[in-house]
Each structure stands twice: as C-alpha cells, then as structure tokens.
Design brief:
Chain A: GO terms for molecular function: ATP binding. Chain A: Pfam families: ABC_tran, TOBE_2. The complex is a heterodimer. By secondary structure, chain A is of the alpha+beta class. Chain A is 24% helix and 33% strand. Chain A has two domains: 229 residues, 3-Layer(aba) Sandwich (Rossmann fold), CATH 3.40.50; 130 residues, Beta Barrel (OB fold (Dihydrolipoamide Acetyltransferase, E2P)), CATH 2.40.50.140. Chain B is built from 14 helices and two strands. In chain B, strand 1 and strand 2 form a beta hairpin. Chain B is globular, with a radius of gyration of 26 Å. Classes of the chains: A alpha+beta, B mainly alpha. The complex binds adenosine-5'-triphosphate (ATP) and magnesium ion. The site of magnesium ion (MG) has 3 residues of chain A, from helix 1.
C-alpha cells in the first residue's frame, strides 16, 4: 500500500502534447478512477504511473519516493491490461507464478501466494488451464490474480472490463469493489464508463484532452459538477442543457429566462455576469416534472420509453437538436405528440456561464 | 480438481462429430475437397511421382546413360551383392557412407547456425530504429542472389592466392600463410557451411521476424511491469511463442540442406571431404554414366530424407499442430 502524487505531470509524444499539467494525489488505500472520453489520455496517464512511458515533465512520487526515472519493476506496481496480456503458452498457475519465480522467491512462498490469490479470485479450478481455454471473465480474473500475486503497493487497471458482456461486467464490477474492500490496497482504475466510475470510486478524476477537468467523490461530481463537460459526462441518462438568458442577478441569486420554461428564480450567484449574458441551464432528467401545457411554455413529446420500473419521456428541444429527457417512475400517462409544460426542481438546476463553468450557489441561499 | 471439467468436454463433442460424419454437408465438403485436389495430385504424379518411380525402377537395373532402353533387371545388385567371397554394391562403398555423413553433418551444423543467427538478425530487425525498412531490404540480398552466383563469388573471395579473405586475415596478422579454404580437407567443409549460412540467414530471419511481429505486444509490457529481465523474457516468453515458426523454418531448411548440391559443387567440385549424397549420385549418373547405380544412390537419398522428415514431424508434432 502506498500513496501516489502527481505534480505538474506532462507527456509529449513527438510533437503532440498529450498530458497537460496534471496534479493529483491518490491516498493510501484509495480507489481512484480516471474517466473521460476516448483519446483523452487516461491510458497514457496510467502508463506514466506504471513506468511504461517516460515522463516529459513534472514529478511523480510513490509514497515519499520520486520515481520519475525508476523502471516499472522498482515502482512496486501491478497492472491489469485491457487485453489481459496473459502469457498464452503458460497455464493459469504459471502465469501467476512467473513474476514471483523470476524474482527468486522461495518455492513455498510462491505456491502459498498463488493459491491464496487463486482462492480470493475463485481460480482454483482453473489453475492448470491455458488462457485460451478460459472465458473472458475468467481471463480477466487471471490477469488480476497475476497482478495481485506479486503483492504490489499499487494496483493499476486499464479498462479491465471493457471486453466483457454487460452482465459479466456488472458481476466483475462487484467483485472488484469487494476485492478492494478486502485487500484495502491502493488502486487506480481507468474506464470510459461513467457507471463503473460512479460505483467503484472513492474519488473520480474526470479527464478531458489531457487535463484534469474535476476531481471529487462520485457524490460531489454528480451534485456539483464544476463544468458543463463534467455535468454532461456523469450521470445516465445525461443532463438536459438549455440556453438561458440572465435577466438580473446579484451575489444572492438570479433570475433567468429560458425558452419554453419562462422566467426562473435561481439560487446561483451571478457575480461578474452582465444582465443579458448567455448562460446554459442544466437539469437532470429526474429533476424535471411534467405538467399540463398552458400558454406558450410547452414542449412536444417526441417519444416515450417504458423500461419497466421507470419511464423516459423525450421532448423536442427549443434549441439545438438533442432531445430533452424526463425520467419518472412507471407508470406514465404521457403519450407521443402531446404538448406538456416542463417544471424544473429549482434546487437542482445547474447554471453554466459562457465558458461552461458552473456558477456557484449563493452562500445565503445555501444556508437557507 | 480440473479433471471433471476436461472430461466433460470430449463427451459433449463426440456425439456431434459422429452425426456430422454422415451428414449431407459432410459428403458435399469431401466431394469439393477432391474436386480441388485432383488437378494438383495429377500434376504432382506427373512431375514428381513418375520420375521418382522411374528412379526406383532404374536402381534395380544395369542401365547406363548412353542406353537406358536395353537395361536389364538385376535385383538388388546395385545396392548389395555377394560375389566371389566379397560384398559389393552401394551399401559397401565407403565413399557413399562418407557422403551420407557429410550431408548429415552439413545439414545439422548449417541449419543450427542459421537458426541462431536468423533469430539474432530477426530480433535486430524487430527493434525500432530509423531506416529499418532499408536494412530489412538489404538483409534480403544474400537470399536474392542465385546460389551459383553467390557460390562463385565466395569461391573467388576464398581463393587461396588471390582471395580477399586470406588477404585480410594476413593483413590483420591472424594467419601467416594463405589457407586453401576450398581445397583443404580440414577447412573445406566449414567454408561451404559458412557460405550456406551466409546465404540462408535472411530466409530464417524473415520467417522469425514475421513470427515476432505476431507476438502479443502487451505481454511484454506485462513482463516489464512484473520486473522480468529482458533476457529471461526472451527465453521464457519469446522463444516458446516463436517455436512453431522456428520449426517450420527448420524443416524448410533441413529439406534443402539434405539435398544440397549447388553451393558445394561450385565451391569444392567432387572433393570427397565435402561430397554429399546428391553430389555422389550425380557423379555416378553423369560422370560414370552408371544410371542404375546412380539411381540406387538417389533412391537411398530419397529414403533418408523421407525418414528424417517423418522423424522430425513426429518429434515436433505438438508444436507444429500436426496432431490437433
Ligand atoms: N505512443 C504514442 N505515440 C503517439 N501518440 C500516442 C501514443 N500513445 C497514445 N497517443 C495519443 O495520446 C492520446 C491519448 O491516448 P490514450 O491511449 O491515453 O487515450 P485513452 O484516454 O486511454 O483512450 P481510450 O478510452 O480510447 O483508451 C491519443 O490521442 C493517442 O493518439
Ligand atoms: Mg485507453
């Protein structure tokens, strides 16, 4: 177990700047998840920590030690690859024992550790099989077992579940969560699936174009996204965004006008914004209420999806072409083609300024 | 623990296979296979089967090159015959056995060296560096030159009086007097082995390189994270994974080496210290005009190569995937 600290980490491949000034600290025993869209540099950042890529600038510490120039084997990390990277010609046992054997570990210790790991991951039945005789989920467990058997200080996972089917993914997600609970080791986990991030993480790091967009607990990221990007990335179905215009505002709160919603009084402080400024209003699908249409403020229902326990109602937007989503418990009385009024829950409305930064809730109204 | 699992698998498969054998689909596939195979089999019978059978036949006659039509059947006399209290025939000829030994020695040594150097060259070519494509093309040159040409070239370089190799070695002070590389009984075998190795390294290297590029790259990163020394990774990961390709390269080379003729004939002609089975057979057939005796040698050559091949395939069956 060890902590990891990144200070102003940069990575340049040839002439492309991939990782830009990343600051981050991973506490001892913490489960940190990197999320972000494809190509944002998640894998690269993980490989920098593992030592598989050289660091262009900045300082990386594991525990108290600066490890910028240490080769992977001296960093005490274990890594689980997206493709599992099992040695195809070795059995499950040999795969797990290989690293230990070549580190000249005593034979009994090897046996003991491999068996203990196999027991935790329920691999005992499979020890004498070759990787090609295993299912995807079993291979995935072997890959984890191999990384764990060496008892590294930090376990790194690069999208370990992305090759599995949906139900197995949910099952393995649970097993990883339980494993972390049991072992208590420091884990850094890369995924582009925000559900995995939300369910596993103590701390989520949202990356975008090689920069850290926001760091926080799943709860913080869901309730208080710092930018429109994070707001749109976390949560499923995604947050609804609508253009809005600032009528007037102060440090205590503001009034905005949004097409289709009319005038809303919101608790956000709009210090530094001129009235008439263009803002973006964000509401999660569950923080909307549908009501009978009255006057101009109405939306047409484009589609209704029934999912058993809940219903998604899709509405034609007033601007842009992303349908608005309303989510409620089943059953629902709304039909395609009907016109309805949208009533947002004002305590859960997010406001973003022209630079897509979230506007903070005014202190006074927070207390209230 | 794993026994019930592995036992279950064949049982599940067996009934399906039995049913499959009798189905219409199966019969159609067999018919299609024969349709495609027949022209090839016919061509092979014509260009390989027929000459081979004729060679077998001639080996039991006293045919001579000037007149093969009036050959008489003499049974095994070309191979072995007891006459006047002494044994005669191919099987008693010490020069034949010398040729067999030379051939086997040449094959084993040259193929081994080619494999070792081929792997080394392939590993070098597999590394990332500037101008890699150029080097890859350049490495192919020895393989692209016709053997006769490269053998002649080497014959000149190895020439005891005018050859550049003696010149260089003497200039460097490694030897005092010129070495008759291709004429001396001590050096000539090594000279031909060297030329053959020089020529065939590219072939082995390219086959191995192809195998190296198929290797799962992520395994190496896993090994790096696991802290395994690169040399160990080579012997424990790379080598086992490229073994199937290596075995294929070896069998190609072995079949070539066992019937080697051109390099040796150009470099050392009919010298007994490097005479191989092919050269022996040619000498009997063409120079001594004895088609019957030469055919007997060719027949044995065929049997020995066939035996080595069968043995090799049997020993390497697991890696080559023959019995799967
Ligand atoms: N060795 C390399 N040389 C040059 N560019 C690279 C290299 N490795 C990655 N990149 C670039 O760095 C960027 C980030 O890559 P990375 O693999 O970290 O993305 P990712 O966030 O893991 O994406 P994904 O979710 O698709 O795995 C990409 O634009 C990629 O093209
Ligand atoms: Mg990636």
């Amino acid at each position: 177990m060890a902590s990891v600290t990144l200070e102003k980490i940069n990575k340049v491949f040839g002439s492309t700047h991939i990782i830009k000034d990343v600051d981050l600290s991973v506490g001892e025993g913490e489960f940190v998840v990197f999320v972000g869209p494809s190509g944002c540099g998640k894998s690269t950042l993980l490989r920098l920590i593992a030592g598989l890529e050289s660091i262009t600038g900045g300082e990386l510490r594991i525990g108290e030690q600066v490890v910028n120039d240490l080769p992977p084997r001296e960093r005490g990390v274990g890594m689980v690859f997206q493709s599992y990277a099992l040695y195809p010609h070795m059995t499950v046992y040999e795969n797990m024992a290989f690293g230990l054997k070549l580190a000249k570990t005593a034979k009994e210790t090897i046996e003991e550790r491999v068996m203990a790991t196999a027991r935790i991951l329920q691999l005992e039945e499979l020890l004498h099989r070759k990787p090609k005789e295993l299912s995807g989920g079993q291979r995935q467990r072997v890959a984890m077992g191999r990384a764990m058997a060496r008892e590294p200080r930090i376990l790194l996972f690069d999208e370990p579940l992305s090759n599995l089917d949906a139900s197995l993914r949910v099952q393995m997600r649970n097993e990883i969560a339980r494993l972390h609970h049991r072992l208590g080791s420091t884990m850094v986990y890369v995924t582009h699936d925000q559900v995995e991030a939300m369910t596993l993480a103590d701390k989520i790091v949202v990356l975008r174009d090689g920069r850290v967009e926001q760091v926080g607990s799943p709860h913080t990221l869901y309730q208080q996204p710092a930018t429109k990007f994070v707001a749109g990335f976390i949560g499923s179905p995604t947050m609804n965004f609508m253009p809005a215009e600032l009528i007037d505002g102060s440090a205590e709160g503001c009034r905005v006008r949004a097409p289709g919603l009319g005038e809303l009084a919101l608790p956000q402080s709009t210090d530094g914004q001129r009235s008439g400024a263009g803002l973006t209003l964000g509401v999660r699908p569950e923080h909307l209420r549908l009501a009978e249409a009255e006057g101009d403020n109405s939306f047409e229902i484009a589609n209704v999806e029934y999912l058993g326990n809940e219903v998604y109602v899709y509405l034609e937007p007033k601007a842009g072409d992303t349908l608005l989503i309303h989510r409620s418990e089943a059953p629902s009385r709304w039909k395609i083609g009907q016109r309805v009024a949208l009533v947002p829950d004002l305590d859960h409305v997010h406001l973003f300024d022209g630079d897509d930064k979230a506007l903070a809730i005014a202190k006074q109204s927070q207390a209230a | 623990m794993s026994i019930p699992a592995t036992e279950g698998a064949p049982q599940a498969v067996r009934p399906r296979q039995a049913g499959y054998r009798g189905t219409k689909v199966r019969r159609q596939r067999v018919r299609a296979a024969w349709t495609f195979l027949t022209p090839m089999l016919f061509a092979l019978a014509l260009v390989a089967g027929w000459p081979l059978l004729r060679t077998f036949y001639f080996s039991f006659t006293d045919a001579s090159l000037s007149d093969t039509t009036s050959a008489l059947f003499i049974g095994f006399e070309n191979y072995l015959v007891y006459d006047d209290g002494a044994w005669y025939g191919l099987l008693t000829d010490p020069i034949w056995w010398r040729s067999v030994w030379n051939t086997l020695f040449f094959s084993v040594v040259s193929v081994s060296l080619e494999v070792v150097f081929g792997i080394i060259v392939a590993l070098l070519l597999n590394a990332e560096f500037k101008g890699r494509m150029l080097v890859r093309a350049a490495v192919l040159i020895p393989w692209a030159i016709p053997t006769i040409v490269s053998a002649k070239m080497w014959a000149w370089m190895l020439n005891d009086q005018f050859g550049i190799i003696n010149h260089l070695l003497m200039a460097l002070g490694i030897i005092d007097s010129p070495i008759p590389w291709t004429a001396s009984a001590t050096y000539s075998m090594w000279a031909v082995i060297m030329v053959d190795v020089w020529k065939t390294i590219p072939f082995v290297a390219l086959l191995v390189l192809a195998a190296l590029q198929m290797l799962p790259k992520d395994c190496y990163e896993a090994a790096e994270v696991d802290g395994i020394h690169p040399v160990k990774v080579f012997f424990r990961v790379t080598l086992p994974l490229i073994t199937p390709a290596l075995l294929v390269a070896v069998i190609f080379r072995l079949l070539d080496a066992l019937r080697v003729f051109d390099v040796i004939y150009v470099l050392t002609s009919n010298s007994t210290s490097t005479m191989t089975m092919s050269i022996y057979a040619r000498q009997q057939l063409v120079e001594f005009q004895d088609v019957g005796y030469g055919s007997a040698a060719s027949t044995l050559l065929f049997l020995i190569i066939a035996l080595v091949t069968v043995l090799y395939l049997y020993l390497g069956r697991r890696q080559l995937g023959v019995d799967q």
